[in-house]
TrEMBL record:
Ranges of residues in domain Peptidase A1: 45-189
SUPFAM superfamilies attached to this UniProt entry: Acid proteases
CDD domains reported in the protein's UniProt record: pepsin_like (cd05471)
GO BP terms, alphabetized: proteolysis
Pfam families: Asp
Family stated for the protein in its record: Belongs to the peptidase A1 family.
Gene Ontology CC annotations of this record: lysosome
Protein name as it appears in the record: Peptidase A1 domain-containing protein
Domain of life: Eukaryota
Species in which this protein is naturally found: Mesorhabditis belari
Record region (Disordered): 1-21
Length: 189
């Protein structure tokens, strides 16, 4: 289980009436957590996401246009061996709920982006066979849609994280540092 070094109750909220705006802004930004992202051809963002029953994070491709979330799963029965290049594999049977579906499973488990987690009710597509190509863009262990509900899932991982009462700051962003020379200097906050 991922645990944050700082619990939400540890954050000291500034008294908005007594502090100047600039000081409040500095404090607000000091609370944000920046995570490195990888940018592939200005079209694909990848980063780490954890599923509760796996100790190693998945290298996930973030999709800003969907709510779909799937990861590579048990590939033992995959005749094409399409999962051979994945760095992390989810064992579906260790999730609280799973059911067989097409070329994979649907599971419910807890999903974490850094210390922000869903409850155990997050649906995850568990793919044991994919038709994704083998080029640079296909190097991730799965896809996480960052959009709000489009009907394909009840709640996207971000929606579920934001629904938790302890997550009172409902802000999520990708950004590029225009001053950076290194193309790896991208962040999700």
């Amino acid at each position: 289980m991922l645990q944050s070094p700082h619990k939400p109750n540890d954050v000291q909220h500034p008294d908005e009436c007594s502090e100047p705006v600039q000081r409040r802004r500095r404090r607000l930004f000091s609370w944000s957590k920046e995570e490195p992202l990888r940018n592939i051809r200005n079209g694909l963002w990848t980063g780490d996401v954890s599923v509760d029953n796996i100790k190693k994070p998945f290298k996930i491709n973030f999709d800003t246009g969907s709510t779909t979330f799937w990861v590579a799963c048990d590939c033992v029965n995959d005749p094409k061996n399409t999962c051979a290049g994945h760095t992390t594999i989810l064992d579906c049977k260790n999730s609280p709920i799973y059911m067989s579906m097409a070329t994979g499973f649907w599971v419910k488990d807890r999903v974490c982006i850094d210390h922000l987690c869903t409850n155990n009710e997050q649906w995850i597509g568990c793919a044991n066979s994919t038709t994704v190509g083998t080029d640079e863009a296909a190097t991730g262990d799965g896809i996480m849609g960052l959009a709000y509900n489009d009907g394909s899932m009840k709640w996207s991982p971000l929606q579920q994280i934001f629904r938790k009462p302890e997550n009172d700051e409902k802000v999520f962003a990708f950004y590029l540092d225009s001053e950076a020379e290194n193309r790896q200097d991208k962040r999700k906050t």
